[in-house]
Amino acid sequence: MNNMTGNHPLPRRQNLQWLLRQRTLWVALLSWALVSLAFIALCHGPSGTVPLNLPPNQLKQTPLAQVMDSWLALVFLVLECGLVFFLARRRPWPDLAQRAPQRSVALHETVALWVYAAIVLFASRWLGLETFGAGIAMHLNGSLVGATRVQSPREVYLWSAYNFTFFALVPYIVFRMRGYSRQQLNLRSANWKNDTLVILVVLAIGCLTDLTGPNIFQLTPHQRIVGGLLSFVVHLFLTDLPVMILIYAILLPRYARLVSPATAFLLGAASYPAIHIFETFTRYDSPYDSLISVIFVFLFFLPAGVMKSFLTMRTGNAWVHMWGFHAISPHVTVDTRLIVHDFNIR
Fold this sequence. Notes:
Structural class: mainly alpha
């Protein structure tokens, strides 16, 4: 029986021993360390410069500081995963592999979906550059890192419609037409009380963390209400639902069918930065810029991917990660400031 996905999980100490024996875990940690060192070396040392489209306050951070921020975020979120593990200790691990088809079909669907996603990503970059002079990304310019340009409301609406249509709506309809139920797509709760508890605790931690930096409470009451509601809706379609449907509803169960639970978890975590490969701060003018951009995207987004992947694998419910760790924090608590600026809300 699979230790991580069976209906009767091993005691906590044995689960930890099982985890520490997973070769993929140590390969992932070694790879993460090598990527971090490569980023510092490519930026010409610990005190060099990061040649990306970042705002001045971010450009002031040295490559070493950027790497340290990424490692601290990873450690913090791993500890938070431990808290979620404690909150869900009385419920069995869901068997996500049983929600996917047989291996040959799962492999075909996984490859086909990533080919489709790559086409949509390249098309989004071309469309955005041709229409607005900036490629369509999974986040608005300035989300989380600070803005380098102002986006028009028309641009924001187009980005949201594009991402929702091609990363959420089309894949969801196709896989529902292929006969997969909402439970098979990780979109139905098996324990709504515990899911709600996990959401509320994770959300509370995220909101408290967001309060340590620029946040929604630094705006006027009118900006908080109007901008907050608009930010919630815009980001729901722009990134929340696309990420949830594409990665954690469809791909994650297929990863679980194809590989071990530990490897499936890591693939789910790595898929999150992979889908953000054309973020607005990236540059692909040369092989050097491209390599720096890819590494920075993974340094920036992988810690969050770890949390999203764990929340989904532990609860079997993709909605948990979206409500607890995406839709409100940070896209309302932090990014409302961005929406207020782009829409000139006073």
